[in-house]
Design brief:
The strands form 2 sheets. Strands 1-5-4-3-2 form a 5-stranded mixed sheet. It is α+β, with helices and mostly antiparallel strands. It starts with a helix and ends in a 12-residue tail after the last strand. Helices cover about 30% and strands about 30% of the residues. Strand 8 and strand 9 form a beta hairpin.
């Protein structure tokens, strides 16, 4: 069963993982923009490992234990929040963590995969408020500055009872069946491939991109699209036909090894608020072989003064 409205709002707020005060003097967000060249920064493996570890510590600490100490230790005081249900402020976060932990003492932030590039970390998780429920699929994106979390975006979606492709929203089906990203030397090639594929297929709505960039045994985790390259072409073709004025604005792309995440604003028609979407692609042997995503409607109002992007 879907969670109640209050539970959804509590979950959405917790997913913020620590909204800290944004004062008038705060520096505006300077997150990595979407790069059509697929440029990859030169990253220190130790720094990337630190960022991933901190992101998971904060998510699990605040959400599962109501631990405000992780905020003090790992989150900057000028943290910028983009979750529309979460107001800014460290005190708000700590109180929220305590209250949600009291209301949902067995809640689990089940992290499935984590990637990092530059100053960004993407965490893909199954958030379950009550044991036995399917929970929500969530992508969290964190920007780091000075070794601490400085900014946060996320998308959340209820996990449905069934899927059109037989895959759940979290598992790895393509070989090898690991949740860990592939070796770092693959990052540059795979990021460039996905940037080109995304631009042709999603931004320019050319389904012929699937023939060029997608593998025939493509595994789909979007619950509404059939499996395989043919399923993707049929599903997206119908979607593009339904929304001929669709505009997709990629905001940031993060890659590590064989995994590439694209955070975008999908606007079905002019004047609509649209959806915040994170697409995660897996590349093997020069082809996109697997895809996960999370889709969230952009609400009319927000608890903070920031957009979702």
């Amino acid at each position: 069963m879907p969670p109640t409205t209050s539970a959804r709002r509590a979950l959405a707020a917790v997913l913020a993982a620590g909204a800290l005060t944004v004062t008038a003097a705060a520096v505006p967000a300077v997150a990595a923009p979407y790069d059509r060249t697929g440029h990859v920064s030169v990253d220190s493996p130790l720094r990337l490992a630190h960022q991933k570890d901190v992101a998971v510590r904060v998510l699990k600490g605040v959400f599962e234990r109501g631990d405000g100490a992780v905020v003090d230790r790992y989150v900057r005081a000028d943290y910028i929040q983009h979750n529309p249900f979460a107001p800014d402020g460290a005190a708000t976060l700590k109180n929220l963590g305590t209250s949600v932990h009291q209301q949902f003492p067995d809640a689990k932030y089940d992290v499935k995969r984590v990637i990092s590039e530059g100053d960004l970390v993407v965490v893909h998780s199954n958030v379950v408020m009550t044991p036995g429920s399917r929970g929500s699929a969530v992508f969290d994106i964190f920007r780091f500055q000075g070794g601490k979390i400085a900014e946060h975006w996320d998308t959340g979606q209820n996990v449905p009872d069934t899927t059109a492709n037989g895959n759940d929203m979290f598992s790895t089906v393509s070989w090898p069946r690991t949740q860990q990203p592939g070796p770092a030397w693959l990052t540059a090639y795979n990021k460039k491939l996905v940037v080109k594929a995304f631009d042709q297929l999603i931004v320019r709505k050319d389904v012929n991109a699937i023939d060029r960039y997608w593998g025939a045994d493509y595994q789909q985790h979007n619950p509404n699209i059939p499996n395989g390259a043919a399923g993707a072409k049929a599903g997206l073709g119908a979607y593009f036909a339904q929304f001929p004025q669709l505009k997709v604005e990629p905001k940031r792309v993060v890659a590590e090894g064989d995994l590439v995440a694209v955070h975008s604003h999908y606007i079905p028609a002019p004047g609509q608020r649209g959806q915040a979407i994170v697409d995660l692609f897996r590349v093997r042997g020069g082809k996109i072989v697997e895809h996960w995503d999370v889709i969230q409607d952009v609400p009319e109002t927000s608890a903070n003064d920031n957009t979702m992007f």
